[in-house]
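Structure first, sequence second, as always.
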């Protein structure tokens, strides 16, 4: 039995954004995992409920993890670590480490939580697994007890958080929410693969959806297919009762020009989603995934389907890009 601690505010709402659904012409529901918490909110809490339980069980006193400079995962780790009395060391990727980390968005929250930030270049980031291990060795040498969490909290343990999320949606359907019927497809943003792996396993196990449509925000589809398959195997080894995953389609059509850079069209749809649905999507993850969903709807690929969009959070990543949106806000 895999250990877990309660950190998220659950269940998160399962909502029908009526006006947005009409605009898209899609039978659309939204699972509000942007509401899993306060400043620590987003999809990473569900993974960290299990990963931090393992850290505590091992007697760790220092969490070590990595991500992009504005990593939501690093921020959630820093805040939840602080709440549990654990120190965090965050190894963050940035184009120019010498320029430092601007005190805004997730970095502000990391620093408020007392996390130690170490900046590295994208080239150094390629060796992140070895780098995290060397930071752990350093902590050990100084008498500390490190616990290394991989990028995005995406390993078999972390993915089990999204298996449980699917159990939660199953219970909501059983209560009659979203008219009680399973979905045809779940659409979500993917950056490190753990959410996709857990969704695919949980959606099948709890009969929540036939297909998981994974919108990647960086890299290419074959890379993520390989990464997600590896995480699926790890999670199934931890929970052998899990059967085969749901159909997983890794879609790179909404990836945009680069990680954390959205197209003007994606920004326009982010603004539309706020105006029609009161949803705050971000230009790094959820805005790209939702734009991908919208484009699928326009191409007729979602005709007659029941669609669940998983809102994975990411608000600080929107707020640090305020300037990019200045031109997109004119009233229609
Ligand atoms: C990390 C993150 C994702 C991607 O989840 P992975 O499990 O890393 O693929 C999606 N949305 C937001 C807001 C995130 O922070």
């Amino acid at each position: 039995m895999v250990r877990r601690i309660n950190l998220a505010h659950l269940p998160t709402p399962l909502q029908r954004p009526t006006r947005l659904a009409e605009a898209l012409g899609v039978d659309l529901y939204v699972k509000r995992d942007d509401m899993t918490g306060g400043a620590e909110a987003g999809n990473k809490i569900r993974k960290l409920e299990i990963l931090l339980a393992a850290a505590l069980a091992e007697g760790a006193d220092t969490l070590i993890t990595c991500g992009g400079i504005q990593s939501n995962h690093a921020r959630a780790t820093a805040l939840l670590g602080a709440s549990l009395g654990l120190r965090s060391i965050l190894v963050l990727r940035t184009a120019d480490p010498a320029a430092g980390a601007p005190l805004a968005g997730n970095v502000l929250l990391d620093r408020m939580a007392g996390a130690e930030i170490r900046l590295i270049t994208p080239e150094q980031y390629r060796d992140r697994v070895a780098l995290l291990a060397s930071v752990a060795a350093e902590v050990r040498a100084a008498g500390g007890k490190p616990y290394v969490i991989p990028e995005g909290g995406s390993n078999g343990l972390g993915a089990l958080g999204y298996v449980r999320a699917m159990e939660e949606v199953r219970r909501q359907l059983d209560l009659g929410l979203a008219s009680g019927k399973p979905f045809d497809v779940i659409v979500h943003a993917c950056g490190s693969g753990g959410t996709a792996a857990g969704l695919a396993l949980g959606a099948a196990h709890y009969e929540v959806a036939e297909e998981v449509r994974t919108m990647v925000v960086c890299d290419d589809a074959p890379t993520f297919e390989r990464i997600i398959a590896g995480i699926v195997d790890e999670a199934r080894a931890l929970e052998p009762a899990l059967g085969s995953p749901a159909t997983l389609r890794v879609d790179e059509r909404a990836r945009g020009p680069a990680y954390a850079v959205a197209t003007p069209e994606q920004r326009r749809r982010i603004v539309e989603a706020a105006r029609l649905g009161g949803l705050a999507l971000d230009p790094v993850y959820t805005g790209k995934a939702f734009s991908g969903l919208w484009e699928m709807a326009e191409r007729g690929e979602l005709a007659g389907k029941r669609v669940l969009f998983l809102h994975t959070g990411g608000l600080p990543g929107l707020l640090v890009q305020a300037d990019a949106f200045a031109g997109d806000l004119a009233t229609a």
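Margin note: The longest strand covers residues 183-190.
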